[in-house]
Amino acid sequence: MVMTMGALHEGHATLIRAARARVGADGFVVVTVFVNPLQFGAGEDLDRYPRTLDADLELALGAGASVVFAPSVDEVYPGGEPQVRITAGPMGERLEGASRPGHFDGMLTVVAKLLHLTAPDLAFFGQKDAQQLALIRRMVRDLNFPVEVVGVETVREEDGLALSSRNRYLSAGERRTALALSRALFAGRERLAAQEALRARADALPNGRDRAENRAEALSRLGEARAAADAHAVAQAAECAGPGAVRAAARAVLDEAAKAAPPLTLDYLALVDPADFTEVADDHAGQAVLAVAARVGSTRLIDNIPLSFGPPSPESPTLGVAT
Prior knowledge:
The chain is an alpha/beta fold. Helix content is 43%, strand content 16%.
């Protein structure tokens, strides 16, 4: 199954095609379309959230869905809002949960109900909503749902903007500003790649960073400034190649976007452990998620990318990372 809130786009189509590829021509793929009121807080965009069922049916069936299940609110919540709900726990209070109190409780409640109603073997979700994916994995594990959760990589426009049903709210100028979200994430990733390359060079030297420091000092005495600076960079790679530098690179892009017209208003920038969405330490090794949320005009957008710091340990968690 592929769960959606409608207003389908190429990102949803990618999920549906991934599901079809996994189960084969003879498998059964159900797509749900349901705008869940429980996960919208006061002042959020429930009333204006786009509802495009006819177009959704066409896209879903064209991408490989066997059937579209589009229940009404009364069908999903007969008798009104449920008194018994799923609680997201501590992870659901961080990042998106802190910005949108109760959002993840409502999300998990409807996911649980739809899993019961459709009883799939496999459930496909996008990595774009990384915290949601992590929480669904956790719920499935903790409450013994008989389903495999499959994460699918974020789909982006050619310019890098992550596909979202809310992108249609953006004016041309707002969309230009919104590109800072993906640019910030890519800047963080590029900083990490450069640091890891320097770390590898340092580790490849016979005596590691000590050898590079000695070489830098010798080159400085000879007046080879550029070569000495390069050697110093190699020597200091391990100290520089950390989460702080990645955050700083991303933050610089977002700070510039805050000065744009229209401006970007940052909600959060976080580099977190995918197991529980707590901020990673400066000596973190293994997987991480660089996540950002911001508002441009009246539209709130989120994005993230997975990162890996150094060689991952055998115990490195994978919860919440796309598979």
